[in-house]
Q: What sequence folds into this?
């Protein structure tokens, strides 16, 4: 049975929409089915649906719970008859692959961030798709995140590292175009704004959220906001509100921020039992987001309704590290975990919304 449409009860600041544009994609044909894929003995670190094909996703993995190599890239395609996800390609790398993302301007190009301080570019249409076509240098310790800029803003890679730096790369050379020192400790994630060119946000081990406008100043963040006394592990921008983002970390708390007035959080959610590893806003509902945690769960929230979860999905048996929404099948979501599995499903709370 389809879920009832939510009743909004929490007033929001001006400029934050509560209704998304009319949907341009339909629900998954496999509603009610949890699809599973085993990554052998490899532990899932990150995964992303292809922005071009809702029946393809990429997953990056590592060995020994992310402590030692090797790492692998898994390319999975869905069988349109059975709905099962099947391995199309596996590429090996010498060290753990801690993050992965697709290029938004080419359906065959993706990038990984490795534990040896390198960033790899893979081209699935090349003669040797299991070998990186390009590697970016510039770090001697683990990379923590990597993200291509939205295609409307060009083709710039944003990479965060354990050395406290956030770097920008393009395909013209192996070295960073720009290096920004964001912290004296680990930067766990950096994310481009989907709304404003040359703007990104990052979070660090010292519990600080920073927002950088590279056109204004490459040497100093425009917003430097202590958010937590604990490590901040994750950040994501809202898809329909220019100034809203969420942070999460080892204190088990997810906080929302309106950058027009960040003297206090837009919302504070204390729902997880252990550190929150990633947070991801829905591309379909302006105030809905998903979070995954070391408590082995995926949780769905709508901060406009409540600070309590809409649903807890506890179908993993180890730390959950990766989460992503499918841009082609409404409300479908994928996760990967240290239990060697990738799981794809549509949360029951979002069916029919």
A:
């Amino acid at each position: 049975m389809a879920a009832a449409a939510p009743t909004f009860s929490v007033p929001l600041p001006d400029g934050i929409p509560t209704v998304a544009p009319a949907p341009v994609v339909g629900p998954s044909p496999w509603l009610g089915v949890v699809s599973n894929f085993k990554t052998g003995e490899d532990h899932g670190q990150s995964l992303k649906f292809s922005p071009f094909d809702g029946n393809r996703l990429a997953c990056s993995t590592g060995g020994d719970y992310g402590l030692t190599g090797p790492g692998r890239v898994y390319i999975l395609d869905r069988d349109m008859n059975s709905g099962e996800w099947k391995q199309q390609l596996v590429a090996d790398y010498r060290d753990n692959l801690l993050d992965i993302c697709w290029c938004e301007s080419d359906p065959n190009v993706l990038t990984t961030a490795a534990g040896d301080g390198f960033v790899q570019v893979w081209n699935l249409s090349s003669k040797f798709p299991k070998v990186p076509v390009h590697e970016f240098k510039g770090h001697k310790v683990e990379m923590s995140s990597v993200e291509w800029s939205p295609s409307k803003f060009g083709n710039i890679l944003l990479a965060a590292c354990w050395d406290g730096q956030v770097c920008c790369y393009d395909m013209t050379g192996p070295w960073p175009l720009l290096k920004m020192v964001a912290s004296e400790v680990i930067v766990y994630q950096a994310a481009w704004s989907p709304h404003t060119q040359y703007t990104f946000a990052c979070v660090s081990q010292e519990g600080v959220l920073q927002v950088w406008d590279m056109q204004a100043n490459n040497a100093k963040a425009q917003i430097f906001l202590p958010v937590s006394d604990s490590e901040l592990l994750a950040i994501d921008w809202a898809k329909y509100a220019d100034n809203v983002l969420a942070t999460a970390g080892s204190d088990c708390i997810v906080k929302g921020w309106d950058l027009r007035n960040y003297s206090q959080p837009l919302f504070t959610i204390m729902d997880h039992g252990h550190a929150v590893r990633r947070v991801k806003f829905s591309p379909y509902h302006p105030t809905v987001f998903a979070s995954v945690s070391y408590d082995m769960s995926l949780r769905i929230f709508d901060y406009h309704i409540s600070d309590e979860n809409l649903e807890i999905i506890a179908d993993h048996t180890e730390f959950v590290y990766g989460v992503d929404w499918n841009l082609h099948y409404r409300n479908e979501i994928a996760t990967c975990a240290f239990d060697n599995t990738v799981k794809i499903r549509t949360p029951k709370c979002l069916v029919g919304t």
Q: What stands out?
A: Residues 35-350 form a domain with the Methylamine Dehydrogenase; Chain H fold (CATH 2.130.10.10). The chain has one domain: 35-350. Residues 1-10 have pLDDT under 50 and may be disordered.
